[in-house]
C-alpha cells in the first residue's frame, strides 16, 4: 500500500450485482453534500450499456452521471475511468478516460488490469486532490473467485489504495445473512479487516421481526451494522441495467411500446415516459406484440445489425409496418434511427462481423459505421410544431446520409458551437428519427413530441426536477435509517 493514496474515501461493495451499490453511493453523495462536504463519486470499472456524455465529449457509466448530479458536479471521465460496453456475449468495447481504446473478448478479459489499472489510479489520485471525500462504487461482488487475480473493481482496488469498505446486500432477494457472511468468509484476512460493516437494503415489514438476525450478524462477524434501508416504492432514478417490462399506468392519454432488443443501450432515455402519469409505457420482451401502441420507439443499440436481425426474428418488423398502415407513430433513437433507413453498413467490423444489413426501408437514407465514435452534448430546436427547444447527447459510430435527411428532426449546436442538423421527420410526419439521447428530459421538448404522437396536449414536467426531488427523497431515507455519523467518521478519516 502506498502513501500516495493517503486520502479520504469510502467504498461501497455489494454481495451481488444489483444489490444497491449505485443507489447507495448516489444517496450518500447527496447526504454528504447536505453536510457541506465536497464529495465526488468514483467507479474504477463499470460494465454497462447505459452511458452518459461529459461536457468535454467523454463517455462514462450512467450510474456515475447520476451520482455526479447527486454531488452537484458536472460530469467527468475521472468519475468512471474504465467503462466496458458489451457488444456480444463474448466481446466488450473498452473505454478509458471517456474514449474507446480497445476490444476485449472472453479469452483476453484478464488483460484489463494491465491495460487499465494505471489509468484508474491516475483518476483516483486526481479526485483525492480535488475533493474532501471520494465515494467509490464496486462492481458485482468482491467474492468472484475466478476474477480475483485481475480485479481492479473491488478489493483489488481497495487494497491497492487502502480504502475502507462497507458491504451492502439486498434482503428482498432472500438469504441476506448468507450473502453477507459468505462474502466476508471468501475474502482474505486483510480484505475482511477492510470491511467496516454492513448495510441491508430493500427491507419490507416490521424491523423488530428482523432484530434477532441483526444482533446475530454483528456478534458473528464482529462488524457494525450501519442500518437497514426500507424498500422504496416508485423510486424515479435512472436504473443502471435492469429493465422493468411491466406497464406503469392504465389511466393514459398515450400508449408507448419499446421492443427490448438484446443489446439495448441507454434505455434510461425512457424514464420520463415510464413514470409519466398519463402515459401507458411498456418495454416489450421477446415473444410479445408491439401492436396496440399509439407510439412505437426503437431504442439505441450497441450492436445495431444484430439487433435489427433479432427484431425481424420476433416478427416486429411486420408489426411496425402494420402499425404505420393503421396510422401509428414511430420514433427511432440512435441505433433505432439507423434501423429506419435502407441499409446499415459496417465495412470495418466496428460492432460485429463486417458486412451490410438491409434496414426497415421506411426512409431514404443509409448508415455506415465508422471507427471514430461521436460523443457530444448538444442543444438546439426541433423542426416540429413550434420549434420547441431540445437538448441531449450523442453516442454513435454511424454516419447517416440520404435525401430523407433533408427534412431533419432538429438543428443543434455542440459544445464548441458548431451547428448542424440531426435526424429526420418523414414527409407525412408519421416517422421521426434522431441521434439524440435524453431528448425527453426537458419539459418543452417532451410536450412537443407527445403532442406529435398523441395529437393532444399532455402536460409534462422537467425530468431534472423529478430527479433532484428523488435524490432528496433518497437522502431523507438514508438520514433516517442509517448511522450517518458513523459512516462520515469512516469516510473522513485518513486512518484505515
From TrEMBL:
This protein's pathway: Cofactor biosynthesis; adenosylcobalamin biosynthesis
Q: Which positions fall inside the CobB/CobQ-like glutamine amidotransferase domain?
A: 255-444
What keywords are annotated for this sequence in UniProt?
Answer: Cobalamin biosynthesis, Glutamine amidotransferase
Q: Which residues form the active site?
A: 334, 437
Q: Where is the CobQ/CobB/MinD/ParA nucleotide binding domain?
A: 10-239
Stored PROSITE patterns:
GATASE_COBBQ
Keyword Chaperone appears in the UniProt entry: no
Q: Read off the InterPro entries from this record.
A: Class_I_gatase-like (IPR029062), CobQ/CobB/MinD/ParA_Nub-bd_dom (IPR002586), CobQ_GATase1 (IPR033949), CobQ_N (IPR047045), CobQ_synth (IPR004459), GATase_3 (IPR011698), P-loop_NTPase (IPR027417)
- Tell me which Gene3D superfamilies the record gives: 3.40.50.880, P-loop containing nucleotide triphosphate hydrolases
Briefly state the protein's biological role. Answer: Catalyzes amidations at positions B, D, E, and G on adenosylcobyrinic A,C-diamide. NH(2) groups are provided by glutamine, and one molecule of ATP is hydrogenolyzed for each amidation.
The entry assigns this protein to a family as follows: Belongs to the CobB/CobQ family. CobQ subfamily.
Give the HAMAP family listed for this entry. CobQ
PANTHER family reported in the protein's UniProt record:
COBYRIC ACID SYNTHASE, DETHIOBIOTIN SYNTHETASE
Q: What is this protein called?
A: Cobyric acid synthase
Amino acid at each position: 500500500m502506498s502513501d500516495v493514496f493517503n486520502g479520504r474515501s469510502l467504498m461501497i461493495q455489494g454481495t451481488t450485482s444489483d444489490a444497491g451499490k449505485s443507489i447507495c453511493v448516489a444517496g450518500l453523495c447527496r447526504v454528504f453534500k447536505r453536510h457541506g462536504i465536497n464529495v465526488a463519486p468514483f467507479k474504477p470499472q463499470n460494465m454497462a450499456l447505459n452511458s452518459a456524455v461529459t461536457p468535454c465529449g467523454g463517455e462514462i457509466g450512467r450510474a456515475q452521471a447520476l451520482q455526479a448530479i447527486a454531488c452537484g458536479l458536472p460530469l467527468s471521465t475521472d468519475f468512471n475511468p474504465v467503462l466496458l460496453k458489451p457488444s456480444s456475449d463474448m466481446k466488450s468495447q473498452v473505454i478509458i478516460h471517456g474514449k474507446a481504446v480497445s476490444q476485449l473478448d472472453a479469452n483476453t478479459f484478464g488483460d484489463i488490469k494491465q491495460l487499465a489499472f494505471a489509468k484508474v489510479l491516475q483518476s483516483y489520485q486526481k479526485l483525492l486532490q480535488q475533493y474532501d471525500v471520494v465515494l467509490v462504487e464496486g462492481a458485482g461482488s468482491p467474492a468472484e473467485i475466478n476474477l480475483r487475480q485481475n480485479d481492479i473493481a473491488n478489493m483489488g482496488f481497495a487494497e491497492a489504495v487502502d480504502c475502507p469498505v462497507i458491504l451492502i446486500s439486498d434482503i428482498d432477494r432472500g438469504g441476506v445473512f448468507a450473502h453477507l457472511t459468505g462474502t466476508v468468509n471468501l475474502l482474505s484476512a486483510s480484505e475482511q479487516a477492510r470491511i467496516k460493516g454492513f448495510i441491508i437494503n430493500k427491507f419490507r415489514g416490521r424491523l423488530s421481526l428482523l432484530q434477532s438476525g441483526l444482533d446475530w450478524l454483528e456478534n458473528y462477524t464482529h462488524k457494525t451494522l450501519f442500518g437497514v434501508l426500507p424498500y422504496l416504492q416508485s423510486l424515479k432514478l435512472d436504473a443502471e441495467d435492469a429493465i422493468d417490462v411491466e406497464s406503469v399506468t392504465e389511466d393514459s392519454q398515450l400508449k408507448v411500446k419499446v421492443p427490448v432488443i438484446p443489446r439495448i443501450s441507454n434505455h434510461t432515455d425512457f424514464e420520463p415516459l415510464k413514470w409519466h402519469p398519463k402515459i401507458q409505457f411498456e418495454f416489450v420482451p421477446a415473444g410479445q406484440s408491439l401492436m396496440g401502441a399509439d407510439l412505437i420507439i426503437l431504442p439505441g443499440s450497441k450492436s445495431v445489425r444484430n439487433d435489427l436481425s433479432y427484431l425481424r426474428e420476433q416478427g416486429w418488423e411486420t408489426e411496425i409496418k402494420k402499425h404505420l398502415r393503421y396510422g401509428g407513430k414511430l420514433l427511432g433513437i440512435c441505433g433505432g434511427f439507423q434501423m429506419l433507413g435502407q441499409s446499415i453498413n459496417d465495412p470495418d467490423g466496428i460492432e460485429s462481423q463486417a458486412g451490410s444489413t438491409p434496414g426497415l426501408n421506411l426512409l431514404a437514407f443509409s448508415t455506415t459505421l465508422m471507427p471514430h465514435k461521436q460523443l457530444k452534448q448538444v442543444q438546439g430546436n426541433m423542426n416540429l410544431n413550434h420549434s420547441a427547444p431540445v437538448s441531449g447527447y450523442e453516442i454513435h459510430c454511424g454516419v447517416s446520409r440520404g435525401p430523407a435527411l433533408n427534412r431533419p428532426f432538429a438543428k443543434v449546436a455542440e459544445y464548441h458551437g458548431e451547428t448542424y442538423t440531426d435526424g429526420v421527420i418523414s414527409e407525412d410526419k408519421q416517422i421521426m428519427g434522431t441521434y439524440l439521447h435524453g431528448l425527453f428530459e426537458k419539459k418543452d421538448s417532451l410536450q412537443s413530441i407527445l403532442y406529435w404522437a398523441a395529437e393532444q396536449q399532455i402536460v409534462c414536467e422537467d425530468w431534472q426536477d423529478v430527479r433532484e426531488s428523488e435524490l432528496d427523497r433518497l437522502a431523507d431515507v438514508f438520514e433516517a435509517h442509517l448511522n450517518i455519523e458513523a459512516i462520515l467518521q469512516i469516510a473522513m478519516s485518513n486512518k484505515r
